[in-house]
Write a structure and sequence with these properties.
With 147 residues, the protein is of the alpha+beta class. It has helices at 7-18, 23-39, 60-69, 105-113, 117-127, 132-135, and strands spanning 46-50, 78-80, 88-92, 98-103, 136-139. β1, α3 and β2 (78-80) form a beta-alpha-beta unit. It binds zinc ion (ZN).
Length: 147
């Protein structure tokens, strides 16, 4: 993604792409930005594996990951496994570096307490600009070949 989007633009694009705003799609997006920073912006040099499964709302995280990192289904550089966890691992295609991003317990608790579409929308918008360290646990695991 060449041009940095403002928060307002990001929310418009995310809403258009995903259909609504909520904490999972926003956090997936931000996890994608962490990957861009740590592994580089080039979407063809990295791949992602999310652990969300395909059941919303947790799987909304995977849409955010695609939008943020540009690792997409169509490019074949994202896979989704069925653990049902809002967690993602990115790696460079040559295996030289990887980063795994999951949610802090506090983040999980806040999402669990957000009942209803409006509350989830508000929480997602808040989480777009909160400090990364309070939302995520970011780890740099040693490379383990997955394919
Ligand atoms: Zn969603």
């Amino acid at each position: 993604m060449a041009k940095k989007l403002s928060d307002a633009e990001t929310l418009i694009f995310l809403d258009r792409f995903h259909g609504h705003i909520g904490p999972y799609v926003v956090l997936g997006y931000r996890a994608g930005l962490v990957a861009n920073r740590e592994l580089g912006e080039d979407p063809f040099c990295k791949r992602a594996r999310t652990f969300t499964g395909l059941e919303p709302p947790v799987s909304c995280f995977t849409d955010g990951v695609q939008f943020g990192s540009c690792c997409t289904l169509g490019k074949g550089n994202i896979t989704v496994s069925g653990e049902g966890e809002p967690r993602v691992r990115f790696e460079l295609k040559d295996g030289s570096k990887s980063v795994e991003i999951s949610l802090t317990e506090r983040t999980k608790a806040r999402i669990a307490a957000a009942h209803g579409w409006e509350t989830a929308d508000r929480l997602g918008r808040q989480m777009l600009s909160e400090p990364e360290g309070s939302l995520f646990v970011v780890r740099f695991p040693p490379f383990t070949p997955t394919r």
